[in-house]
């Protein structure tokens, strides 16, 4: 199992690799479980500043869930509930990760793979990438937990279009629909994704975490509390603010400490 999901570190940048290239990085139930655990661990690590999620090889980010294991893992309602619980825990972990997550998308990104990408903060793909959610051809629905992130990302009309048609489409259409922010040449996806991760890592890590937290909070219609509003000014009491201001005045690159 460890071979099917790998976690690598390069300083403050962590990479999580879906490692089943011969199966187009199709997700098994155990991979969903392990991925959730990995994201929870990385989220708690203050030395991490950015996470890159990718598939092994250059043919697929992920082709979705591995249908080959459905008979024993997702072949009836009780099994599907347990499988769905593992997926929800991982989706929750991605959504609540304190650090920014960049999806490095090479090739196929469909079904469950699309759900994973939708829960990342920045999605970068290659020109030949393909997207879609053709689960209507399997007689499957997306559960509420799976639907939420896609719906929040692209809205009701596009989500229904994806699910009702089950059509695969290209990278440019994915960008038009809001599924990805950036398209680059296929041979530039890795370089651009890690350059993006480095730009994030070079920024103040507390600021990145606060921005994720504040944006997520604003999706809740409940009124902000006084304490929540006050938290918007907490950055002015950090060492990173002092470092950033002084570096700006000195015309130097800041080296943030996360304090």
Structure in words:
The protein is built from 10 helices and 10 strands. It is an alpha/beta fold. It folds into 2 domains: 5-201, 2-enoyl-CoA Hydratase, Chain A, domain 1 (Alpha-Beta Complex); 204-250, no CATH class. A 6-stranded mixed β-sheet has the order 1-2-3-5-7-10, with helices on both faces. It has a 4-stranded mixed β-sheet with strand order 4-6-8-9. It starts with a strand and ends in a 9-residue tail after the last helix. The model has no long low-confidence stretch (mean pLDDT 96).
Topology:
Layout: E1 5-10, E2 13-18, H1 29-43, E3 50-55, E4 60-62, H2 70-73, H3 77-96, E5 101-105, E6 108-110, H4 112-118, E7 122-126, E8 130-132, H5 144-165, E9 169-170, H6 171-177, E10 182-184, H7 189-202, H8 205-218, H9 226-231, H10 239-250
Parallel strand pairs: 2-3, 3-5, 4-6, 5-7, 6-8, 7-10
Antiparallel strand pairs: 1-2, 8-9
Helix pairs in contact: 1-3, 4-5
